[in-house]
What does this fold into?
Amino acid sequence: MLPDWRCTANQAKCTTAYCLSDASIPRPAQLFRNGKDSEYKGPRDASGIVSYMIDNAAPDARKVNAAELEALLVALRDGAPEPQVVFFAAKDSDVEGTTGLMGTRSKMGDAFITLAERLRDSFSFAWTSDPAAAQQYGVKAGTVAVLHSRLLAGKLEPGTVQYSGSGDLESWVWTASLPLVGPLTQRSAPRYTKAGGTLVRVAVSNDWADDAKGANYLLNRLRRVAAKHTGLRVVTMKPDSPLAGLNDFGVGSGPAGELSVTAVGTGGAKYSMPGVWSPAASEALDTWLSDLAAGKVEAYIKSQPVPEGKENGVTVVVGKTFDSVVLDDSKDVFIEFYGVFMLSCFVAAVAVCSCA
It folds into this structure.
């Protein structure tokens, strides 16, 4: 159901629960599920909203048998491979049983279902009591495991990561869900953000739906390099993806950005490798990643050329000189941000020059 709530007509409820202090300013769209409300963070187009709501109508964790689980591991989610967080139950009551002091649900099953309810928008959860599934993936009954997509299979990419039982389960899921090299999508991006560190992005346009073999070939080439630099996270992304933002790295978007290599460091620093990556010869990428990890690569800053001297006694600041001039804590700085095409800015600039 998709109701349209009129805040001005329901001010009593709006001001207490679903809107900001001013009833005329509604909070972001809300999703109510099982009587609990949460902020809607899905797509805003009609088809996206429908798809999102269908997903949310499904259980937090679906029950599957061995064949159904295998089908999930070769399916695409939003056009890319998706890992599955799976609980291998010894019996159905480990998940479906009652809770509480005298409950029949197992401790691990209860922790798994609680986690699935909380993180269903971030991961795909499933559970099975099929002994054939546990045997197929080499997992003991009563254990949680992250199963990576079959489409990402490779010698350097473990297909199954099993939870040892020690440590926080949620923290483990966030870490175990990241492959050595994987696709960067709207769904996987928050996982890499939470993991932190430097994210190396390689732009490739291969489509998983049309050319899964070709896409995984490139991943295998990248894995050989990424395995030497475990302190870095390496992903692939489409050059025209909204997540790429290649223009902000000095790289052309679309076809012009094919096989370009960029990185986002801690604090949002941007880096761009000269040239492009060659899958047949990755020595240049290997060297650049070593320099990046050692702090030898200069961050890319989008900037106009640095002007020589002052103009009418005023220092003109550009992107490359902003930090050194404006953020210099040894002196106070008065700065005017202006656009050369705006008359009001021109008048203000004249005033600043007269002050100087």
In short: The longest helix spans residues 212-226. The CA atoms of residues 290 and 296 lie 9 Å apart. The chain has twelve helices and 14 strands.
